Amino acid sequence: MLIINGDITKPKTEQQVVEWLANYVTQPGIAVSGVYVPRLDGGSTEAGLLVFTPHAVAVIEVDALRKKARGPLSCSMNERWSAPGIHGDPVPLRGDDLNPLHQVRRPVSALRTFVAELTRGPEPFVDGLILLIPKAGNTLTLDKGPMPGGFTVLLGDSASQLYSWFGRTAQHRDRTPWTAELVVTVLTALRVDRTRDAESRRRLYADLVAEGFPTEVPAARREGDPESAASTPAPAPAPAPAPAPRVDPTPAVASTSDSTPAPTGADAPRREPTKSAPIPPSAPPRKTDEPTLTPSLSNTVAPTTPITSPQADAPEPNRHEPDTDFTNVGPRPQPPANHRLRTALLGIAAALILVCGIGYMAGKDHPRAQPGSQPAPSQVRPPEKATPASISPTPTTESPHTQQRSTSPTEGATCYPFQAGC
């Protein structure tokens, strides 16, 4: 076991115990002599021997009997001790302590609080040991009364009693182990020798590791420690997967009723687009009706009168079908009032176009009705009688336009639209 401050002048009995600890090789440890532990009130209390092992820390108080005594020594926590043949306290006390157990309880309590404040953790378990050294030739026994947990009285007539106690204390592996780093931290805070500078602390840490102190808390101990489990926060639950963003489809017709089911984001791309130009997102959807309704009405009435214009001969796309609504899968709602008004105006315009087309066709079929192409009715002269001799035997070539006029049944008469026989 490592010894710090072992050369400090001390009573002979305490010096003997330090030698026993130095020769103890069964369990790793370090013993410090002459330590003063700070208290919460600002003072300090003396600890005779402060011993650290990987599984325990103990404050050892070494006391020698004042006189030779034989028989049982009565010792308990809350009573004065007594021994046959000794008047008064059988061991010397400091201050107003009731017995040696009260004397060791002060540094034990102070060390628990000091380590808890230093490490910001729970208070460690600190043992308190009273080691009584009898005088030579005494046959003394111990009559122990009620003792609190962690406090023990031993008769130190040989080193075997002390070694056995350390062996039993080392079995408390359920306690939080003392690592080499933690021991160096506590001894540095207590201002112990060999911790004055960084180099001394590094050498002390290396000596503790070589002695057998662990460098870290074992994983099995961290999992089974109720104190660490209570202080360790529970792991946060896994975040729930974010819901898929909902895509609200833009309706193609502003007058779509609320009861019409809207297609989902997966159904909308599957519909085939109409032949009309794509609708910009910012433009109102109803504007696409205007270029489709005008040719639809004219195409519906046009078959009554053939139109021979080049525009009419070109094939028109079939636009009289109603616009495909991307969202309306139910009954088509009634158009609004402004839509009906626009439809009526378009119908009137189509009727005017139809009348103009009829007039144009009538004028094309009868070119004499055009101004300047034929003389007025008052200027028409009756044909003169032709004699056979005046007819030239040579055939004349007439233009198709002249042949058409000669075959007309009403030669020389003016024809008007819708006149019978024209």
UniProtKB/TrEMBL annotation:
Residues 234-248 have a biased composition (Pro residues). The keyword Transmembrane applies. Residues 387-402 have a biased composition (Low complexity). It comes from the Bacteria. The chain crosses the membrane at residues 344-363. It holds the Pfam family NERD. InterPro entries: NERD (IPR011528). Residues 216-338, 366-422 are annotated as: Disordered. Residues 291-311 have a biased composition (Polar residues). Keywords: Membrane, Transmembrane, Transmembrane helix. Residues 13-132 form the NERD domain. This is NERD domain-containing protein. The lineage of its organism: Bacteria, Bacillati, Actinomycetota, Actinomycetes, Mycobacteriales.
